[in-house]
Each structure stands twice: as structure tokens, then as C-alpha cells.
Amino acid sequence: MKVNADLTTVIGKEHEEKWVALTKDRSSLIDYSEDLTELRDRLGEKKNNYVYMRVLRSDTEYCF
Amino acid sequence: MKRMRWREYDYTAQLGPRGSYSHRPLITVEVSYKPTGEKILVNAMIDSGTDGTVMHSSVARALKIDSSTCRKATLGGIGSAVGFAATVGIYVPDFHVTMDATVAFIDMLPADALLGQLHFFQRFKVRFDKDLNKFFLAAV
Question: Is residue B66 in a domain?
Fold first, then answer.
């Protein structure tokens, strides 16, 4: 499976600091929410078909 | 000597400061918790500067981990945080490798998951070729 390595095409500033659900190839954003549990509840039985990610702020350089 | 089978990955581009792109080494892993049978796929970052494995506490809630039964976990670095530790399964689909890892779950993690030295780097050789925006993994 070819995975999309450019998330700037599917994730925007409105998704920052939120949880997003992506298709497994990361080519499409399915839904997003501030709360991961709420997001997965909305996706129901299909919740395990998607990849979840917490989107970092774009105006910040990170060191963990 | 056993020959390594390296798998190539692109760094993932995300929006960065001042209109730039930040490229990060992300891979998809499945995190599972045996007592509840729950699992979740997350885009985890490979982080050689992290001692163990760290995840956002929301991942623990998705796995229905009861944090009240877990021991405390304290993390330091730039800032410090207190969370809780629980043992989960981490499955790397590209290699069909599963490892049990005691993960520190914290609220203040800005990302979803960091794969650090104690678990991930013991199971995988990691080669960062930042000049090419590629990284390579091989199971050991």
C-alpha cells in the first residue's frame, strides 16, 4: 500500500491540536474532533478501519 | 551474518512554522490492550531522544484502560509531566512484529505517540537519511 507522505494535502490549520481519523493510506481525512473517544464513537463500527493522529501546531517547533 | 532487510519510508510532511514544512518520521502502529480487547491504529513518531514509549492519555481512554489501577509515570525533558503506565501491545503491520511495551500515558503530549529507545529501538534498526527525507527500518 502506497502511503501518502504529504499530510499538508489533507490536514489544515483547522485540524491543529485536534484528533483526526485518516484512511490507512493517509490519502483522505474522514473526520476530526477535539476528543478522540467522541471521534471514534462517531465512526461507530468502522472505527478500527482508520488511523488516528493528534495534529501538531504548525507555528511551533517541537522537541519531545 | 544475517542480512538486514531494510524497508524504506518517506518522512511525513506537515505544516510547519512560517509557512514551512516539517518532515517527521511517522509510521502506523496498532496499539492494543488485552484486558479489554480494544485496539487502535495511530500514526506514531519514531523518536530516538525518548527513553521509552509515550502516548497521549486519550489513546489509553480509547483502549478503555482504567488509569486508577495503573502506577504513576513521571516524565522529564523540556518541562515535566505525570501520567500513568500500562502495558499494551504494539503491532507494526509492515513487519508483522508485535511487542509488549509499558507505555507512559500523559495528557500534555502534543502528538499521539512517541516510539523511543526502550521498546522500538530494541526491536528495530533505524536509519535516518534526513538529507533524502527518508528513513529505513529493519526488524532485529
Answer: yes
